[in-house]
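Write out a record, fold above all:
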Amino acid sequence: MSVRELVVLGTSSAVPTPRRNHNGYFLRFDGHGVLVDPGEGTQLQMRRAGVSAHDITRILITHFHGDHCLGLPGVIQRIARDGVTHPVYCAYPAQGAHYFDRLRHASAFGDTDAIRPQPLCGEAAACGGDADLQVSARALDHSIACYGYRLAEPDGWTMLPDLLARRGITGPDAGRLKTRGHVTAPDGRRVELAECARPRRGQVVAFVFDTAPCAAAEELARGADLLVIEATYTASEAALAAAYGHLTAPQAGAIAAAAGAKALVLTHFSERYEPAEAPRFAAEAAAAGFTGPITVAADLDRVTLPPRRR
């Protein structure tokens, strides 16, 4: 059975706390395992969450501030140590390539050729991916080169058994209809896919970290089924957010609302806030206009993707 869920490995920003590890997010999406921003301590958090090196198919680095990348050496060395043989594509800002190289070879270990670097350039970049999950990136507004990521499943079709039966389409022919777009019915008539199915929108997950409010953040989040976004500060610290290129909870909620996101996960909290203050973040995001479900992330949370939209 396929699994689509976000595993939260860490939710703190620059400074980890006794209750919040540095950033780290693992997206299970059917056969894909996408690790986003492995901060310090990610390898241990993976063990606690039951995520293995073999589960990782892709690593996405938004930027090279330490809370978003200092766990990368341990993760890569674990991939090597555990003998992962499938390719693990690793996207990151090309302007930080020297940091990637230092982290990639931070200490002595038996290296691996499983890691496939993907340096990103420009305002928008395609990160490749597979036919069933495409990855794209857009440059955000931060103090150093920083990208947000959008993972999109292609649109598809939901087969309708009653309509298939009415046209005499059964067994392997139903599969061929979905694959080819048409088949010949037993009575010799050509049957088109649209006669027996309805369009199904592909699911979208977006990650937006470390940015001032900007058009690119909203574009990444457009129509996302799940938007994972920083809310480093509450509204009372808006001046700090502006000074350091971060979002407040109301700004995160406003971006989600304007983009039409379906569900919102707030994370990347300043060390000044205790987990008990989580309701404050949710309330401020909702007050900014977001009416969907809001998760104020805690370490080791698991957030299931919302049901597919029809």
Remarks:
- Residues 4-155+201-302 form a domain with the Metallo-beta-lactamase; Chain A fold (CATH 3.60.15.10).
